Amino acid sequence: EVQLVESGGGFVQPGGSLTLSCVASGFTLSAYNMNWFRQAQGKGPEWVSRIYSGAGVRTYAGSVKGRFTISRDNAKNTMYLQMNSLEPEDTAVYYCSGHGFRGQGTQVTVSS
């Protein structure tokens, strides 16, 4: 069974950091292009970052470039999103997706 499970969300003050994890099961994560998306309350989904299959080329949305880092651990079949210098505008439910599947999401709230 293919499954993606996110974790690591929470409440953080502006300027803080969080690292999200996405554990894949039922397929080899590194064989697929994998994405992080987010959706703020009342807004549509926003693509955040992608790590390509194989060599793992990474791309970022302009709104997070320089602050967020996507990575993966092939041995753990897990993808990460390191988020630094968080802003209130980063508040959203964050989802990982790939291979036609999406996780259940993890809430990130940035507030003072």
Short description:
This protein has strands at residues 3-7, 10-12, 18-25, 34-39, 45-51, 58-60, 68-73, 78-83, 92-98, 101-102, 106-110. It has 112 residues and is mostly beta strands. The chain starts with a strand and ends with a strand.
- Number of contiguous helices: 0
Indicate the structural class.
Answer: mainly beta
- What share of residues is helical? under 10%
Q: List how many beta strands DSSP finds.
A: 11
Rough shape? Answer: globular
Mean pLDDT: 97
Q: Approximately what portion of the residues adopt beta-strand conformation?
A: over 45%
- What is the helix/strand order? EEEEEEEEEEE
Largest sheet: 7 strands, mixed
The gyration radius over C-alpha positions equals 13 Å
End-to-end gap: 40 Å
Low-confidence segments, ≥5 residues, pLDDT <50? none
Describe the structure.
By secondary structure, the protein is mainly β. 0% of the residues lie in helices and 52% in strands. The protein has no helices and eleven strands. The protein has strands at residues 3-7, 10-12, 18-25, 34-39, 45-51, 58-60, 68-73, 78-83, 92-98, 101-102, 106-110. The strands form two sheets. Strands 2, 4, 5, 6, 9, 10 and 11 form a seven-stranded mixed β-sheet that branches. A four-stranded antiparallel β-sheet has the order 1-3-8-7, with no helix packed on it. It is globular, with a radius of gyration of 13 Å.
